[in-house]
Amino acid sequence: MAFNNNKLIGKLNEVQEFEREVIPQNKLKGWKSFIGTYAGEHTAGTEFVIGPLFVAHGASASDIIFGLLLGNILAVLSWAFFTAKLSVKKRVTLYYQLEKIGGKNFTLFYNLVNAGLFCCLAGSMIAVAGTAVGIPFDLPIPSLSDIYPTSIDWIIIVFIIGAITTFIAMFGFNEVAKFANIAAPWMIMVFVAAAVAVLPDLGVHSISDFWQVANDKIWTGVPLEGQSQFTFWHVLFFAWFCNMAMHIGMADMSILRYAKKWQYGFSSSAGVFLGHYIAWIASGILYSLFLIESNNSTEFAPGPVAYRAAGIAGAICVIIAGWTTANPTLYRAGLAVQAIMPKSKTWKVTLIVGLITTIAACFPALVMNLLDFVALYGLILMPVGAVIYIDTYLFPKMGLIDEYAEKSGIRFNVSAVITWGLTLVLCLLLNLMYGIEIFFLGLPGWFIAVVIYIISSKLLQKPTLIKKP
Amino acid sequence: MKILLSIISVVGLLLTIIPAFLVFFGSISLEQNKNLMLVGTILWFLTAPFWLNKKTEEV
User: Which residue of A276, A357, A467, B6 is most buried, as measured by CB atoms within 10 A?
Assistant: First the structure.
């Protein structure tokens, strides 16, 4: 135990390398590293849920093919022109840059919010893995409208997976990360193979049959009972903003600060076109077959769906995809909370975070509403990215003080707080008063954040506070 | 040895993907495909860890 703990502390120290300094020139990485990282990160357990949910929400075949294509292109452009350009200019983590702009307390609050969101994401992935682990036990599967745990068996299986995930997150993050990298190429093969193998069962016997079947049987354009109707725009904006926290929200500064050139941001295309295009289409195909065979059952079970198409390999794929997503996410949540309580032992914090995550995972509502959650996740963190972007590129040109918290020695930049809070309040009002759905709020929200940050900084910045170098 | 392991890994990946296309073209059954995918999976996970993560690219 003591050995493992020391080892963990060593690993944590490793993770903290260059956290508070600019990346040295000799540590910059080539484009292959980024292609590998993005391809691995975006072929994950969530893909088994998102593709089917598009089917459940009645997206049509052309919505999927063209909406995803355009949305993913916009996501890649956001990664390259927003995140990568800024990352290469600053070469520090999001957290350090945020501390310079918003102050230490602002960053701690950001960590807390991030930790809560990470817990929900990890919880949904534990539940996804649970649907596959439950196959040999004939586990009753929750349905799309379920909110609360559906059986004791479900709770037991989720708790077992949650306990294993938490234990590994406490002691072995690096090994899980390595395992996830190994699993990634195989996972994408399983996604594709499973979908191709069931095409004849859907009535596709030659490539020319595909488009007709895609329209008539797979993405029919008709939502399942109780599900809202998705259009081309829902699909496009979801594909663009599902990783909004990472690109426009700037969380991927932590990765792209290692890039030799900003153009390496385009390597994100490896992730989105494998994970958010091919894998979503493949998992949608699998789910549509399930719907046909189950007479439109509202049960939602990525595990059995993959098992039906690809046998044991499919079930293993769901477990590994869910677990390799849940594990690092849980670890990051633990680190985020630990930053707030630095005197606490990391493993104890991860244990508590893991327990909360596992309890959350028991509630099927988390998985069933994954599309909304992912959109909300991006939206909540988006204003922070807008603050960083404007602070870096616009403030010096406008005569405003960039990195205000660091230069003035404050721990809480009120302008940044107002921007974050007021943007989200206004987005909520847009939703409630004008009925703009959560998937579309990110775009107006970004401009709202920009305007609020500029106005509040103009009003609140005090040049007299600035320390002389 | 590393080359041999990487060749086996690639064979594993091919066994995971190619049989699905054979099902599509009606050459094998779905059950045969599932078995071949499992064999491919085993080959991949037994061999890939020995070469895939061993090199970290630093420029």
Answer: A357
CA distances from A395 to A42, A235, A391, A406, A458 (A): 33, 34, 5, 15, 10
In a domain, A83, yes or no: yes
pTM above 0.80, yes or no: yes
Report the domain count for chain A.
Answer: 1
Quote the ipTM score: 0.93
In a domain, residue A439? The reply is no
**Chain B residues inside the 8 Å CB shell of A196:** 20-21, 23-24
Give the nearest partner residue to B38 out of A28, A260, A313, using CB atoms.
A313
Asked whether residue A395 is domain-assigned, the answer is no
Question: Distance between CA atoms of A463 and A408, rounded to whole angstroms?
Answer: 8
Domain containing residue A218: CATH number: 1.10.4160.10
Residue A170 covered by a domain: yes
**In chain A, what residues touch B13 (CB-CB under 8 Å)?**
185-186, 189
Contacting residues of A for B41, CB less than 8 Å apart? 186, 190, 312-313, 316
Q: Which domain holds residue A278?
A: 2-380
- pLDDT (tens digit per residue) in A309-323: 999 999 999 999 888
In tens, the pLDDT along A350-401 reads: 899 999 999 999 999 988 899 999 999 999 999 999 999 999 999 999 999 9
How far does A415 lie from chain B, in Å, by closest CA?
A: 39
